[in-house]
Every structure is written in structure tokens, then in C-alpha cells.
Amino acid sequence: MKGMLYLCATPIGNLKDITERVTETLSQVDLIAAEDTRNSIHLLSHLNIKTPMTSYHEFNKTEKARVLIDKMMSGENIALITDAGTPAISDPGEVLVRMCLSEGITVTSLPGPAACITALTLSGLSTRRFCFEGFLPSEKSDKKELNEVLDELKRETRTVIIYEAPHRLKRTLKILHDAIGDRRMTICRELTKKFETVLPTTIEKAMEMYDSEEPRGEYVLVIEGRSREDIKNEEIASFENMSIEEHMAMYESRGMDRKEAMKAVAKDRGVSKRNIYESLIKSD
Q1: DSSP per-residue letters across 71-102
Q2: pLDDT tens digits, one per residue of 150-184
Q3: Domains in the chain, please, with CATH?
Q4: Helix, coil or strand: residue 8
Q5: Cα angle vertex 37, ends 34, 38, to 5°?
Q6: Contact 5, 106 (CB under 8 A)
Q7: Which helix (H) or strand (E) holds 55?
Q8: pTM over 0.90
Q9: Quick one: which of 64, 95, 109, 79 has its CA closest to 3?
Q10: Residues 62-85: pLDDT tens digits?
Q11: Rounded CA gap, 104 and 191, in Å?
């Protein structure tokens, strides 16, 4: 009989946030796979849990996953924990989950703390629609991917959640400002810890603040999405730089007939179809 993989959420700061179910599971499984055993030993000691641990992290995620899967195939139950929060969110556990599912191994998740959701609920920004970007790609290691992500964020209408380390915060704020302009944002740091900070601000004001203040702690940036009205106005402005004839030609080149093209041009420009028709008559 195959064993199971348990994704166990651990505290992001305050150790009292551990759930009874996670504590019980960590005590009962055969093995705990931890992102950093040196860090996790403090939590397990606090909980008086003696279950053996093994490391599972970014640099051994594929090779070690095969080892862990072999153990589960032989009947062992394994718990996966990250340094803080919920495993598999911006975390190598994603790979292990995918491989387990492909082998028919049952995976279950024991819910608990997640920095992204905690920050979102504290931000004061819209929580109805949001997207999680995790850590932005490094400019040095993958500039192409970074530019692609930033291009997407320029038009993102949902609230955006980004993680950042203190040594990269200033650079990330500048990159965001250059790409998406000034936006309302809430900076969250050291969540659930003694020096928890929740600061509603803007990207520009945050840049100014950290010119004279050194970032400390782990950060979650919650950024306001762009309004649909702004996007629509920008589109209308871009069409105004195009003559009506050019605008018509753009749609006709896509296979639209004259009537369909006039309707599309009128919608883009926020005017009636008759206005477009009369403009075309005058230009003939």
C-alpha cells in the first residue's frame, strides 16, 4: 500500500499559529521533508516532535523528489514543510506534488499560514480579485522573463502580491516604478512577528522612504491593480493618433468587411458608427 504526502503549513512568524492537525501529523508521519532542517529543528523542538527529518530544497528538488517518492511507494507517509508558510507556494514543493500525482500517490494539504494571504487581508486594497507573482525574476539571471512579467503587470487589473528580500527591495521598487508607474501599495514586513509592519503607501513614497532607511526583514508588497477605465482611455488615446482611414485599414486587413470595421472603429473611439461613416465620406 502506498504512503501519502502531507503538505503541512507552518507559522510565518508566531509559533502559536501552528494548527493542532499539523502538529499531530508531524508527530505521526514516518519522515518530514524540510526546506532547511537547521531552521525547522527549532519548530519541531518547540512542539516536542521527534520525527526524523531530511532536506528538500530548491537545489535538490528533482533528485530528492525521486528518493521521497520511492519511500512513499513502499508505504511511508511523508510530511513536507517549508521554512515558513504553506509548502508549494513559490516553493520547490510544487515539483514534489506534481511528481507524486503522476505516480498515483495521494497528496493532501493541511491549511494554515500563508504570507501572501495574510498581507492581502491587511492591505486595505481590493481582495475580490488578486494575483500572486511571488518573487520577480532576477534581472541578472533572466532579463527577458523579467521584462515579460513587467509587461503583464502594466495592464494587470487585479491586486498584485509580490515577495521580496530586504537586499533586493530598493531595486525592485525602482523596477516596478519604471515599468508600471506610481501605484497605491501596502508594504508588509515581519508578518505575525514582534515588529510586524503594515504600511499603506505608494511606490514613489516607498522609494523615497528607503533612500534614507535600510530595508530589514522579509517583505510582501501588495500593489493596486490598474483600473479598466485607465486602460480604456489609453487605448482611445492611441487610436486618436491613427487616422480613421488607417484604423479602418487595420481591421479590414484582419478580414473584416467594411460594415464590421466601421462598427469596431466606432467602439474603439467611443463614438457612433454614423460619425465614422460621415468622416469617411468627407475624406473620399
Answers
A1: HHHTT--EEEE-SSB-TTSSSTHHHHHHHHHH
A2: 999 999 999 999 999 999 999 999 999 999 999 99
A3: 4-113 (3.40.1010.10), 116-226 (3.30.950.10), 232-283 (no CATH)
A4: strand
A5: 150
A6: yes
A7: strand 53-55
A8: no
A9: 79
A10: 999 999 999 999 999 999 999 999
A11: 36
